[in-house]
Fold this sequence. Notes:
Blueprint: H1 30-42, H2 47-56, H3 60-75, H4 77-87, H5 95-109, H6 115-128, H7 135-147, H8 149-158, H9 164-173, H10 178-184, E1 192-195, H11 202-211, E2 216-228, E3 234-246, E4 263-265, H12 273-295, E5 304-311, H13 317-327, E6 351-359, H14 362-374, H15 379-384, E7 389-395, E8 416-422, H16 437-440, H17 443-460, E9 464-474, H18 483-491, E10 496-498, E11 509-510, E12 515-516, E13 529-535
Parallel strand pairs: 5-6, 5-8, 6-7, 8-9
Antiparallel strand pairs: 1-3, 1-4, 2-3, 9-13, 10-13, 11-12, 12-13
Helix pairs in contact: 1-2, 1-3, 1-5, 2-3, 3-5, 4-5, 4-8, 5-6, 5-7, 6-7, 12-13
Amino acid sequence: xxxxxxxxxxxxxxxxxxxxxxxxxxxxxxxxxxxxxxxxxxxxxxxxxxxxxxxxxxxxxxxxxxxxxxxxxxxxxxxxxxxxxxxxxxxxxxxxxxxxxxxxxxxxxxxxxxxxxxxxxxxxxxxxxxxxxxxxxxxxxxxxxxxxxxxxxxxxxxxxxxxxxxxxxxxxxxxxxxxxxxxxxxxxxxxxxxxxxxxxxxxxxxxxxxxxxxxxxxxxxxxxxxxxxxxxxxxxxxxxxxxxxxxxxxxxxxxxxxxxxxxxxxxxxxxxxxxxxxxxxxxxxxxxxxxxxxxxxxxxxxxxxxxxxxxxxxxxxxxxxxxxxxxxxxxxxxxxxxxxxxxxxxxxxxxxxxxxxxxxxxxxxxxxxxxxxxxxxxxxxxxxxxxxxxxxxxxxxxxxxxxxxxxxxxxxxxxxxxxxxxxxxxxxxxxxxxxxxxxxxxxxxxxxxxxxxxxxxxxxxxxxxxxxxxxxxxxxxxxxxxxxxxxxxxxxxxxxxxxxxxxxxxxxxxxxxxxxxxxxxxxxxxxxxxxxxxxxxx
Length: 538
């Protein structure tokens, strides 16, 4: 999952320039630091880039309150802004003043901070950020709300807390689910863990969590789809994906053996990606093996090279999951050893697996390497293992990158057996986790992102072998980036066939192509879209 590469616009009121984000200074009271962080976000910085500087600037005793104040203000941002407009006699154009009042409103309406503390400290914060002329206004509005907080909380909660353009688009795309969806996006998301199956089982790790006094449930999702075999006829396939949902979010350093790579934090719906594309890859290899047996042209003594690609791979969660599956000695592994006769599966006899991962920013590439290092999945670790897996991580633009050692060698010819495309998107499906998205995104971003997605698909599709599979994934809930993108792609590619997800699926909503998960249930995963494409021989 990731944000659109296009720089988001500032949603602050016009004719009111914010101080440059590079001037963000983390000093003063907790509320002042939160206000400055919110101003930086409105000036274009992402929550992920400013959260750590905020928390690291505070004493441990203040971090919890600052985190709750910042995240809750962001989640209720647009609803608070509309409420504020009804509370003020005249329009408030100064973004610093609006932000300060909204921080005060959150304390009164959502965090149950004592009236006197919320009002006094917020007024003092207005002085600290050099807007002392607004203290009378700040004081008056907060005192008015403090007299009847339940009344104003109901007003704030009545509708959505999204920019109007996004709410309108969701109404068009998801009319039946609109009310639940827009309210669900205002809530915190549950914390899920992916257990490294090559190290331990989900059940054993749940017991380890209990031992650490961390309550958790096992979540199991079933995926059914009809994969195509060598004769292009379909065969129903089902697979199960297990993860863990924590009852309460927990710091990763409190999780058993987290530093050793036993588990990773990953949304439950994101955990579907690697098993689906791996199952499709296994189906392709099985079809090729059966075809080789029929023609008597196959031989177990011939080393088989399997090429797979993870495009737009950062921060590396889905890549790591795929590598864990490949490495595990079970039926989903490319190196599975049959228990009955101890012979390697004929579909991957003498397999040499080459994994390529690309992303277009050096810091994001470094993030991939760090995550794989923790999970003992770096190239060094893979070389030390018994299985033959070669991992190549490349910093490249997916709209232009071609497989090859260098530009001259790149031919755009089919080389990959399977491609996982975790496509750039507006990330509207993860607003619960990244509420700054509702501030940073604009309506124009949708069109720009859809064009970017189309460019990536157009570049990668020719590099997929006939018979291969491409899994298209986004963390968006906008149909233009998802099902409509797939419909347009298939219309212009005669060799692309959409694989049908069956009613066996325990997740998502069936679409004309693929399935869409919506972040409605407070106990379920984020908004993800999945479409699996099969490449036929033209």
